[in-house]
Amino acid sequence: MYSRLNQIEDWLELAKQCDYKASKIARCVGISTRQLSRRAQKLFGRSAHAWLNDQKLLTAPPLLKQSVSIKWVARELGFKQESHFSRKFKQRFGCSPKNYLIAWRTGIEQVRPKPTFEHAVDIVASDQINGIVNSQPKKCH
Predict the structure, then answer these.
(1) Sign of the dihedral defined by the CA atoms of residues 54, 3, 38, 45, in that order
(2) Residue 114 or 86, more confident
(3) If you count Cβ atoms within 10 Å of the first and of the last residue's Cβ in the chain, which end, N or C, has fewer?
(4) Contacts of 96 (CB under 8 A, 6+ apart)
(5) Alpha helix locations (H) across the chain?
(6) Which residues touch 116 (CB under 8 Å, ≥6 apart)?
(7) What is the pLDDT of residue 1?
(8) Are 48 and 56 in contact (CB under 8 A)?
(9) Which candidate, 57, 54, 86, 55, places its Cα nearest to that of 69?
(10) Which residue intervals of 45-96 are DSSP H helices?
């Protein structure tokens, strides 16, 4: 049942290619969204949707640094409303995208994702799957 899923070496790259959408990943891999959900729960300790949303938000800080506007980043990441992106960004990182940019431009550095059990499970699972060692990001002021 999971043979196609076992062949996936880089979940994050697959997520990016499929615009962070579970239905697109399932279609690309040739499985049902239910099968994908079960595998995500097993690998990441949470739903595919929750993991994909978090991964999408984790790509926001580098995009903010190189973009012209917060609105562009929101659209690039698939958010229909800039306000929704800003709300999710603040929930995840503890500061708004605007404050993040101000802090970055004034040398205060990068945001630190809010630590939660869900995110800790996600980081460990991502490290195990992708062989990535995450450095400790700094807190946004």
Answers:
(1) negative
(2) 86
(3) N
(4) 86, 89, 90
(5) 3-6, 11-17, 22-29, 33-44, 48-58, 60-66, 70-76, 82-93, 97-105, 117-130
(6) none
(7) 45
(8) no
(9) 86
(10) 48-58, 60-66, 70-76, 82-93
Residue tagged 């994050």 (tokens): 12
Q: How far is it, in rounded angstroms, from Cα 127 to Cα 124?
A: 5
| Distance of alpha carbon 73 from alpha carbon 55, whole angstroms | 14
Please give the CATH architecture assigned to the domain spanning 59-116.
Orthogonal Bundle (1.10)
∠ CA 23-8-132 to the nearest 5 degrees?
Answer: 110
pLDDT band at 57 (very low <50, low <70, confident <90, very high): very high
* Residue 5 CB partners (closer than 8 Å, separation 6+): 29, 31, 35, 36, 39
pTM recorded for the entire structure: 0.69
Average pLDDT, integer, range 73-94: 94
- pLDDT single digits (tens) 4-48: 666 677 888 889 899 899 999 999 888 899 999 998 999 889 999
